[in-house]
From TrEMBL:
Homopentamer. Signal peptide: none annotated. Catalyzes the interconversion between ADP-D-glycero-beta-D-manno-heptose and ADP-L-glycero-beta-D-manno-heptose via an epimerization at carbon 6 of the heptose. It comes from the Bacteria. InterPro entries: Epimerase_deHydtase, Heptose_epim, NAD(P)-bd_dom_sf. Gene3D superfamilies: NAD(P)-binding Rossmann-like Domain, UDP-galactose 4-epimerase, domain 1. It comes from Acetobacter tropicalis. It is an enzyme of class 5 (isomerase). Its cofactor is NADP(+). It catalyses: ADP-D-glycero-beta-D-manno-heptose = ADP-L-glycero-beta-D-manno-heptose. This is ADP-L-glycero-D-manno-heptose-6-epimerase. Keywords: Carbohydrate metabolism, Isomerase, NADP.
Protein backbone atom coordinates (compact mmCIF):
# COMPACT_ATOMS: atom_id res chain seq x y z
CA UNK A 1 0.00 0.00 0.00
CA UNK A 2 1.10 3.54 -0.76
CA UNK A 3 -0.37 6.46 1.19
CA UNK A 4 -0.80 9.81 -0.56
CA UNK A 5 -1.81 12.67 1.72
CA UNK A 6 -3.48 15.40 -0.31
CA UNK A 7 -4.08 12.72 -2.92
CA UNK A 8 -7.21 14.37 -4.28
CA UNK A 9 -5.39 17.67 -4.72
CA UNK A 10 -3.45 18.95 -7.69
CA UNK A 11 -0.05 17.26 -7.54
CA UNK A 12 -1.34 14.43 -5.34
CA UNK A 13 -4.02 13.36 -7.80
CA UNK A 14 -1.58 13.44 -10.71
CA UNK A 15 0.72 11.17 -8.71
CA UNK A 16 -2.28 8.99 -7.84
CA UNK A 17 -3.04 8.60 -11.55
CA UNK A 18 0.53 7.51 -12.28
CA UNK A 19 0.65 4.99 -9.42
CA UNK A 20 -2.72 3.55 -10.41
CA UNK A 21 -1.46 3.16 -13.97
CA UNK A 22 1.32 1.01 -12.53
CA UNK A 23 -1.27 -1.21 -10.84
CA UNK A 24 -0.31 -0.16 -7.29
CA UNK A 25 -2.78 0.03 -4.40
CA UNK A 26 -3.09 3.49 -2.91
CA UNK A 27 -4.81 5.05 0.06
CA UNK A 28 -5.65 8.72 -0.43
CA UNK A 29 -5.92 10.98 2.61
CA UNK A 30 -8.00 14.02 1.67
CA UNK A 31 -11.41 15.66 1.67
CA UNK A 32 -13.48 15.64 -1.52
CA UNK A 33 -16.02 18.17 -0.30
CA UNK A 34 -19.19 19.06 -2.16
CA UNK A 35 -17.67 20.71 -5.26
CA UNK A 36 -15.99 19.03 -8.23
CA UNK A 37 -12.75 17.99 -6.54
CA UNK A 38 -13.87 14.34 -6.80
CA UNK A 39 -13.27 14.57 -10.54
CA UNK A 40 -9.53 14.67 -9.83
CA UNK A 41 -9.89 10.99 -8.92
CA UNK A 42 -12.70 10.00 -11.29
CA UNK A 43 -10.47 8.19 -13.79
CA UNK A 44 -8.13 6.60 -11.23
CA UNK A 45 -9.91 5.98 -7.94
CA UNK A 46 -7.78 4.84 -4.98
CA UNK A 47 -8.30 1.55 -3.18
CA UNK A 48 -9.33 3.57 -0.14
CA UNK A 49 -10.06 7.19 0.80
CA UNK A 50 -10.01 8.53 4.36
CA UNK A 51 -10.34 12.09 5.67
CA UNK A 52 -7.26 13.64 7.30
CA UNK A 53 -8.79 13.60 10.77
CA UNK A 54 -8.87 9.78 10.64
CA UNK A 55 -5.25 9.35 9.57
CA UNK A 56 -3.73 9.05 13.06
CA UNK A 57 -6.25 6.38 14.09
CA UNK A 58 -5.59 4.47 10.89
CA UNK A 59 -1.84 4.51 11.45
CA UNK A 60 -2.34 3.19 14.99
CA UNK A 61 -3.61 -0.05 13.42
CA UNK A 62 -0.04 -0.60 12.13
CA UNK A 63 -0.95 -1.12 8.48
CA UNK A 64 1.72 -2.46 6.14
CA UNK A 65 2.73 0.58 4.07
CA UNK A 66 5.49 0.65 1.48
CA UNK A 67 5.73 4.43 1.14
CA UNK A 68 4.08 7.67 2.19
CA UNK A 69 3.92 10.55 -0.27
CA UNK A 70 3.07 13.53 1.92
CA UNK A 71 1.57 16.13 -0.43
CA UNK A 72 -1.16 17.45 1.88
CA UNK A 73 -0.75 20.97 3.27
CA UNK A 74 -2.27 24.39 3.59
CA UNK A 75 -0.57 25.81 0.53
CA UNK A 76 -1.97 29.33 0.29
CA UNK A 77 0.89 31.83 0.30
CA UNK A 78 -1.54 34.34 1.82
CA UNK A 79 -2.56 32.05 4.73
CA UNK A 80 -2.94 33.92 8.03
CA UNK A 81 -4.04 31.29 10.61
CA UNK A 82 -0.60 30.40 11.94
CA UNK A 83 -1.91 27.86 14.47
CA UNK A 84 -3.75 25.94 11.76
CA UNK A 85 -0.73 26.07 9.45
CA UNK A 86 1.50 24.78 12.27
CA UNK A 87 -0.83 21.84 12.99
CA UNK A 88 -1.26 20.96 9.34
CA UNK A 89 2.10 21.68 7.73
CA UNK A 90 4.51 21.04 10.61
CA UNK A 91 3.01 18.91 13.39
CA UNK A 92 1.38 16.40 11.02
CA UNK A 93 4.55 16.17 8.94
CA UNK A 94 6.58 15.41 12.08
CA UNK A 95 4.16 12.67 13.14
CA UNK A 96 4.35 11.06 9.71
CA UNK A 97 8.16 11.24 9.72
CA UNK A 98 8.37 9.51 13.09
CA UNK A 99 5.74 6.91 12.15
CA UNK A 100 7.64 6.07 8.95
CA UNK A 101 10.90 5.80 10.93
CA UNK A 102 9.32 3.39 13.42
CA UNK A 103 7.62 1.31 10.76
CA UNK A 104 10.40 1.09 8.17
CA UNK A 105 8.32 3.02 5.64
CA UNK A 106 9.69 5.29 2.95
CA UNK A 107 8.75 8.97 3.21
CA UNK A 108 8.68 11.49 0.34
CA UNK A 109 7.27 14.91 1.14
CA UNK A 110 6.47 18.26 -0.45
CA UNK A 111 8.57 21.22 0.52
CA UNK A 112 8.42 24.45 -1.49
CA UNK A 113 10.44 27.06 -3.37
CA UNK A 114 8.63 29.55 -1.11
CA UNK A 115 11.30 28.66 1.46
CA UNK A 116 13.78 30.76 -0.57
CA UNK A 117 12.00 34.00 0.26
CA UNK A 118 13.39 37.07 -1.49
CA UNK A 119 16.24 35.21 -3.21
CA UNK A 120 16.73 36.82 -6.62
CA UNK A 121 19.87 35.27 -8.14
CA UNK A 122 20.46 31.70 -9.36
CA UNK A 123 23.14 30.99 -6.77
CA UNK A 124 20.67 31.74 -3.95
CA UNK A 125 18.41 28.82 -4.92
CA UNK A 126 20.76 26.10 -3.74
CA UNK A 127 19.16 23.13 -1.96
CA UNK A 128 22.43 22.37 -0.15
CA UNK A 129 21.42 21.45 3.43
CA UNK A 130 24.45 23.38 4.69
CA UNK A 131 22.75 26.58 3.49
CA UNK A 132 19.31 25.75 4.86
CA UNK A 133 19.52 27.96 7.94
CA UNK A 134 20.36 31.03 5.85
CA UNK A 135 16.93 31.03 4.16
CA UNK A 136 14.32 33.62 5.12
CA UNK A 137 10.84 32.81 3.73
CA UNK A 138 8.55 35.77 3.04
CA UNK A 139 5.25 34.22 4.12
CA UNK A 140 3.70 31.84 6.63
CA UNK A 141 3.38 29.00 4.14
CA UNK A 142 7.03 29.18 3.11
CA UNK A 143 8.10 29.41 6.75
CA UNK A 144 6.11 26.29 7.68
CA UNK A 145 7.79 24.28 4.92
CA UNK A 146 11.18 25.62 5.99
CA UNK A 147 10.58 24.65 9.62
CA UNK A 148 9.89 21.04 8.67
CA UNK A 149 12.96 20.92 6.41
CA UNK A 150 14.96 22.09 9.42
CA UNK A 151 13.33 19.42 11.60
CA UNK A 152 14.45 16.75 9.13
CA UNK A 153 18.02 18.02 9.05
CA UNK A 154 18.18 18.21 12.83
CA UNK A 155 16.94 14.62 13.14
CA UNK A 156 19.61 13.45 10.71
CA UNK A 157 22.35 15.39 12.51
CA UNK A 158 21.31 13.88 15.84
CA UNK A 159 21.26 10.39 14.27
CA UNK A 160 17.67 9.97 15.40
CA UNK A 161 15.60 7.17 13.83
CA UNK A 162 14.71 8.00 10.25
CA UNK A 163 12.69 6.43 7.43
CA UNK A 164 14.67 3.96 5.26
CA UNK A 165 14.25 6.39 2.38
CA UNK A 166 13.38 10.05 2.79
CA UNK A 167 13.21 12.87 0.28
CA UNK A 168 11.88 16.40 0.40
CA UNK A 169 11.01 18.13 -2.87
CA UNK A 170 11.06 21.92 -3.10
CA UNK A 171 8.36 22.40 -5.72
CA UNK A 172 8.64 25.53 -7.84
CA UNK A 173 5.69 26.92 -9.87
CA UNK A 174 3.76 23.82 -10.94
CA UNK A 175 1.01 24.01 -13.57
CA UNK A 176 -1.20 21.44 -15.28
CA UNK A 177 -4.51 19.53 -15.11
CA UNK A 178 -6.43 18.84 -11.88
CA UNK A 179 -5.66 22.21 -10.29
CA UNK A 180 -9.15 23.61 -10.86
CA UNK A 181 -10.25 23.44 -7.20
CA UNK A 182 -7.41 25.65 -5.98
CA UNK A 183 -9.24 28.97 -6.16
CA UNK A 184 -6.89 31.94 -5.87
CA UNK A 185 -3.90 29.57 -5.72
CA UNK A 186 -4.53 28.19 -9.20
CA UNK A 187 -1.61 28.51 -11.62
CA UNK A 188 -1.05 31.67 -13.63
CA UNK A 189 -1.33 29.57 -16.79
CA UNK A 190 -4.96 28.67 -16.06
CA UNK A 191 -5.83 32.23 -15.02
CA UNK A 192 -4.36 33.70 -18.22
CA UNK A 193 -6.12 31.08 -20.34
CA UNK A 194 -9.48 32.00 -18.84
CA UNK A 195 -8.81 35.70 -19.45
CA UNK A 196 -7.86 35.39 -23.10
CA UNK A 197 -10.67 32.95 -23.88
CA UNK A 198 -13.12 35.50 -22.46
CA UNK A 199 -11.83 37.99 -25.03
CA UNK A 200 -9.73 39.96 -22.57
CA UNK A 201 -6.01 40.68 -22.58
CA UNK A 202 -3.78 38.59 -20.34
CA UNK A 203 -3.39 40.72 -17.21
CA UNK A 204 -0.03 40.78 -15.44
CA UNK A 205 1.05 42.56 -12.28
CA UNK A 206 3.19 45.64 -12.63
CA UNK A 207 6.55 45.12 -11.04
CA UNK A 208 6.90 46.29 -7.44
CA UNK A 209 10.67 46.62 -7.90
CA UNK A 210 12.29 49.52 -9.78
CA UNK A 211 15.03 47.25 -11.17
CA UNK A 212 12.57 44.84 -12.83
CA UNK A 213 10.42 45.88 -15.79
CA UNK A 214 6.72 45.08 -15.95
CA UNK A 215 6.30 41.51 -17.16
CA UNK A 216 9.99 40.73 -16.63
CA UNK A 217 9.34 39.09 -13.27
CA UNK A 218 10.57 35.54 -13.82
CA UNK A 219 9.69 32.22 -12.25
CA UNK A 220 10.67 28.61 -12.70
CA UNK A 221 7.46 27.11 -14.13
CA UNK A 222 7.32 23.30 -14.16
CA UNK A 223 4.83 21.03 -15.98
CA UNK A 224 3.12 18.73 -13.47
CA UNK A 225 4.00 15.57 -15.40
CA UNK A 226 7.68 16.42 -14.84
CA UNK A 227 7.02 16.70 -11.10
CA UNK A 228 5.38 13.25 -11.11
CA UNK A 229 8.34 11.80 -13.02
CA UNK A 230 10.71 13.01 -10.29
CA UNK A 231 8.55 11.42 -7.58
CA UNK A 232 8.31 8.12 -9.45
CA UNK A 233 12.07 8.15 -9.95
CA UNK A 234 12.54 8.52 -6.21
CA UNK A 235 10.12 5.64 -5.63
CA UNK A 236 12.06 3.50 -8.09
CA UNK A 237 15.39 4.40 -6.47
CA UNK A 238 14.93 3.71 -2.74
CA UNK A 239 18.59 4.37 -1.96
CA UNK A 240 18.27 8.04 -2.92
CA UNK A 241 17.65 10.38 0.02
CA UNK A 242 17.89 14.13 0.31
CA UNK A 243 16.30 17.55 0.03
CA UNK A 244 16.01 18.45 -3.65
CA UNK A 245 14.77 21.32 -5.77
CA UNK A 246 11.98 20.29 -8.14
CA UNK A 247 11.77 22.84 -10.93
CA UNK A 248 12.68 23.03 -14.60
CA UNK A 249 15.97 24.74 -13.86
CA UNK A 250 15.04 27.69 -16.08
CA UNK A 251 13.51 31.04 -15.13
CA UNK A 252 10.97 32.37 -17.64
CA UNK A 253 9.22 35.72 -17.56
CA UNK A 254 5.53 36.24 -17.03
CA UNK A 255 5.46 37.92 -20.44
CA UNK A 256 6.84 34.70 -21.96
CA UNK A 257 4.08 32.78 -20.19
CA UNK A 258 1.29 35.12 -21.33
CA UNK A 259 2.47 34.95 -24.94
CA UNK A 260 2.70 31.14 -24.78
CA UNK A 261 -0.88 30.93 -23.49
CA UNK A 262 -2.14 33.17 -26.30
CA UNK A 263 -0.25 31.14 -28.90
CA UNK A 264 -1.53 27.81 -27.55
CA UNK A 265 -5.10 29.14 -27.46
CA UNK A 266 -4.83 30.49 -31.01
CA UNK A 267 -5.55 34.12 -30.11
CA UNK A 268 -3.59 37.29 -30.78
CA UNK A 269 -1.01 38.24 -28.16
CA UNK A 270 -2.41 41.00 -25.96
CA UNK A 271 -1.16 41.88 -22.47
CA UNK A 272 -2.31 44.47 -19.95
CA UNK A 273 -0.48 45.46 -16.76
CA UNK A 274 -2.37 46.04 -13.51
CA UNK A 275 -1.30 47.08 -10.02
CA UNK A 276 -0.15 44.37 -7.65
CA UNK A 277 -2.56 43.85 -4.72
CA UNK A 278 -1.38 45.40 -1.48
CA UNK A 279 -1.51 41.97 0.20
CA UNK A 280 1.26 40.69 -2.09
CA UNK A 281 3.65 43.60 -1.93
CA UNK A 282 6.76 42.71 -0.03
CA UNK A 283 5.83 39.00 -0.17
CA UNK A 284 6.09 38.50 -3.92
CA UNK A 285 8.93 36.46 -5.40
CA UNK A 286 9.99 38.32 -8.53
CA UNK A 287 12.51 35.64 -9.50
CA UNK A 288 12.89 31.91 -8.94
CA UNK A 289 15.10 29.34 -10.64
CA UNK A 290 15.76 25.86 -9.34
CA UNK A 291 19.38 24.83 -8.96
CA UNK A 292 19.22 21.19 -10.09
CA UNK A 293 22.85 20.36 -9.33
CA UNK A 294 22.09 18.02 -6.43
CA UNK A 295 19.14 16.30 -8.15
CA UNK A 296 21.31 15.59 -11.19
CA UNK A 297 24.18 14.41 -8.99
CA UNK A 298 21.77 12.00 -7.31
CA UNK A 299 21.16 10.39 -10.70
CA UNK A 300 18.07 12.07 -12.19
CA UNK A 301 18.68 12.43 -15.95
CA UNK A 302 15.25 13.18 -17.47
CA UNK A 303 14.85 16.43 -19.44
CA UNK A 304 12.25 18.96 -18.32
CA UNK A 305 9.45 20.17 -20.57
CA UNK A 306 10.02 23.67 -22.06
CA UNK A 307 7.43 26.25 -21.00
CA UNK A 308 5.88 26.66 -24.46
CA UNK A 309 5.45 22.89 -24.89
CA UNK A 310 4.01 22.40 -21.40
CA UNK A 311 1.51 25.21 -21.91
CA UNK A 312 0.57 23.90 -25.36
CA UNK A 313 -0.15 20.46 -23.91
CA UNK A 314 -2.09 21.89 -20.98
CA UNK A 315 -4.23 24.12 -23.19
CA UNK A 316 -4.82 21.84 -26.16
CA UNK A 317 -4.92 18.44 -24.42
CA UNK A 318 -6.89 19.50 -21.35
CA UNK A 319 -8.29 23.04 -21.04
CA UNK A 320 -9.71 23.19 -24.56
CA UNK A 321 -11.41 19.79 -24.27
CA UNK A 322 -14.76 18.84 -22.80
CA UNK A 323 -13.10 17.08 -19.85
CA UNK A 324 -9.93 18.86 -18.67
CA UNK A 325 -9.06 16.34 -15.95
CA UNK A 326 -6.16 13.91 -16.00
Amino acid sequence: MIIITGGAGFIGSCLQAALTKRGLDTLVVDWLGSDLKWRNLARHAPARLIPPEELDAFLETNPKVDAVFHMGAISETTARDADLVWRTNIALSRRLWHWCARNNTRFIYASSAATYGAADRPELFSDDPAKLNTLEPLNLYGWSKHVFDQHVMKALKQRAPRPPQWAGLKFFNVYGPNEYHKGKMISVVKVKYDEVMAGNPARLFRSDRPDIANGAQARDFIWVEDVVKVMLWLYDNPAVCGLFNCGSGTARTYLDLAHAVCDAAGVARKVEFIDMPESLRGQYQSYTQADLTRLRAAGYTEAFTPLEEGIRRYVQDYLATGNPYL
